[in-house]
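Thread: Newbie trying to understand structure tokens

Hi all, I'm a second-year student working on a class project, and my supervisor (Dr. K.) asked me to get a predicted structure for one chain before our next meeting. I've only ever worked with sequences, so writing a 3D structure as a token string is new to me. If someone could post the tokens and maybe explain what I'm looking at, I'd be very grateful. Here's the chain:
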Amino acid sequence: MAVSQFSCGGAMESLHYKSQSELIGFGSRRSFNSRLLLARTLSLNPRTHRSRCRRSVLVTNVIKDPTVEQETTLSSCTPDAVSIASSIKYHAEFTPLFSPEHFELPKAYFATAQSVRDALIVNWNATNEYYEKLNVKQAYYLSMEFLQGRALLNAIGNLELAGAYAEALSKLGHKLETVAHQEPDAALGNGGLGRLASCFLDSLATLNYPAWGYGLRYKYGLFKQRITKEGQEEAAEDWLEMGNPWEIVRNDVSYHVKFYGNVATGSDGKRHWIGGEDIVAVAYDVPIPGYKTKTTINLRLWSTKALSQDFDLYSFNSGEHTKAFEALANAEKICYVLYPGDDSLEGKTLRLKQQYTLCSASLQDIVARFERRSGANVNWEEFPKKVAVQMNDTHPTLCIPELIRILMDLKGLTWKEAWSITQRTVAYTNHTVLPEALEKWSLELMQKLLPRHVEIIELIDEELINTIVSEYGTADCDLLEKKLKEMRILENVDLPPTYAKLLVKPKKSSSVLPTEKLEDSNKDEKLEDSNKDEKLEDSKKDEKLEDSNKDEKLEDSKKDVKAVDEEIEPKKKPLEEKKKASPKPPKLVRMANLCVVGGHAVNGVAEIHSEIVKDEVFNSFYKLWPKKFQNKTNGVTPRRWIRFCNPDLSSILTKWIGTEDWVLNTEKLAELRQYADDEDLQTQWRQAKRSNKLRVVSFIKERTGYSVSPDAMFDIQVKRIHEYKRQLMNILGIVYRYKKMKEMSASKRKAKFVPRVCMFGGKAFATYVQAKRIVKFITDVGETVNHDPSIGDLLKVIFVPDYNVSVAELLIPASELSQHISTAGMEASGTSNMKFAMNGCILIGTLDGANVEIREEVGADNFFLFGAEAHEIAGLRKERAEGKFVPDPRFEEVKEFIRSGVFGSYNYDDLIGSLEGNEGFGRADYFLVGKDFPSYIECQEKVDEAYRDQKKWTRMSILNTAGSSKFSSDRTIHEYAKDIWNINPVELQ
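---
Reply by user tm_fold:
Sure, no problem. This is what the structure looks like when written as tokens:
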């Protein structure tokens, strides 16, 4: 139950929200319930009544639907500081999470957040009510990550109440900024994937598009990073320990999710998934407000639990407490941790459970909403006209077989109908070209955990086989075999008998198939048969797995981390048996291929990435279905990433552009170009940057104990720690810089080098050993350099622990140089590069991901470029494998300097060894650090030269902000809405 907390209406009637998304009024103003519910909306001070107003407004549909006019009641006035203070005090007293004696910071934060949430709920309810009544087409964005960051300042900023809340809290003895810092970051993501999803939700709400997000409510997040002398250590996130004031649990919105069991044919001739393990997914809703609009959309997160009946009371009373809790623990752990370690079979199983829980609960919810909005006459052919499902990377791939399962097994549709509806509903965003991120799951594991879905995936695979055969014919068996091997969803799985004979080559024509196999093939359903229901029944006969090998393959799957380029070690056999047979490759489900086949659109996230997707990753699919493939260059929200995190710069932008419209129309930022050389603008620009840097100086001192100079260049690389992102090249460049400084006299080094504070931030996955070595190395270099009195403020190396959105909001506005130096062709897009550019930071980087487009927009002269290009990478790796690569002497010099022990006694042979040799796992410098190192350090010399001329540097900084308009997520969302989802804005006025 929620009532607007603000004293903003003369009428005594308030609004209450039912679970069916209806807004209903309370009755008589004299009733006890009405008076109790309004206690927090009416201040005892008569002065708070003077601005109260309430009006009826029309909710209008931008697309001019004939049913558009729906009348609702929304507050039209802006609450003042007195009424807000009254609301905060109400929550401190009547919705307490703390003892009543004091109004200290944690309590002030929760009361303030609950006050803001009340304001959001009114708009949120009205938005959902309108979507229900209009039955508008809605987009649903499914993502394993939503990296939201703190919500308080973003919410009051979007509601345009920041000033009023600051004044209200001041009256109550607190500063808004101090209260806001009490909020922990929501631990629902890790990197760019989750941050992009959150930017998209902000833009969807701001642009009034009907959409929801779906994710999982991770209790312990990824992990909290601690930096010790041993490097990175991981601890569980505690963001939910004191509760989350922004979420609302929906105990009436829950769905059963099944695992294991078996599939049987019922008396009705249909397939039924029976037995197994059932858990319950419960909805937790988080309102997402738009900027300067009433539209407030929803992020629905699923938490998992078991039913009370699954608690084994007999075992508990018998003293077997662990056994008693087994079912509850198995259910709850699904939503414990983001990306649990998957080196073990148990870890793989848990990850697959997570992915299926997200897909199953979300699709059950979407289908239920469609049925409710459709009323008595549900027409399933209308489903793709009312629903658009976007899969953010391959994690939600199981949406495809799950939607088919719901439509066929629960709603009674035929295979042909369900397959057509699914293909028209679902779309896929590819975020990577890295093999390990193009997920492959063990078929054996999936068949055990999700037996019905494997049957459906086999049907989809057979449909694909038929398409491939129709496209390429049977005349060229080698070509057909190549295409089938490359494109099939099921890898290392025999072809269905109907198709197996097509690959029998003429030279092997003497090998006659056994009679019984020929007879079986005659019984198989012919591809031309249109009766897909019978085909589904027959698919049971075409069992894809060999029962005699199940135990061995399941054991092998323990060694298969989603089967990413890893060899499965066979069981030990006698020498003579090894000579006779090599181990069978594991049978796998290629999730990315399933996404491409099962959806109507596939998009990359930067122009260069989308071309690589078409030319390399999915080239055969692109040739088959060219119209499926699109580019949607990523973007970031200018609200959080300029307007709210960098108020000093925002004020300058508004002053010089002449309007604050740039927050919604970033194209206006281009108007700054005409003032790039203006001395007044440059002075103000530098002052804003220094102000931001001073905040970071204090932050670094607090977090790390190191003191840094605000007069030094702030050089920042913050992102997930990964070899392809090449934090290793950055720190090797710093080592080279340090070595050269040490070789010079004090006067020479001061003349040669610009003072720098080199900052790193990001998490290495707990099981990614090489990434953790990189973190350790960075901190060791920092320990040595930062305590070297001969270097002083000329060079500092800082690793910022536990990097997250809130830290980014502090570092990015203060940044002057940002490093985006991934191996060309390996970064899909990147979004932090966009945030840095928006805030007037100059980038040094390769022609990779969105760097290419940023450089085009801001101008080549305002971007520091180095390194090999994407089309050269394969040739350079081949050259290395052939032993033709000759390392630069400066690169060898740096490695020898490290091995000398100058940075401590830790043995870095494994780390440095990865850059050496010509072949072998973990060797041969796969990410071309050595190849790009010479051009990198030469480019860094150009950076120093440019920074010495502060007028030139400031001009470059201004032109980066002016050229960043393309990289607003508003532009990206408009493109998704038009080209993929086919949805239109719906505005509450």
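A couple of things are worth pointing out once you decode it. Residues 1-72, 508-578 have pLDDT under 50 and may be disordered. The chain is about 45% helix and 15% strand. Feel free to ask follow-ups in this thread.
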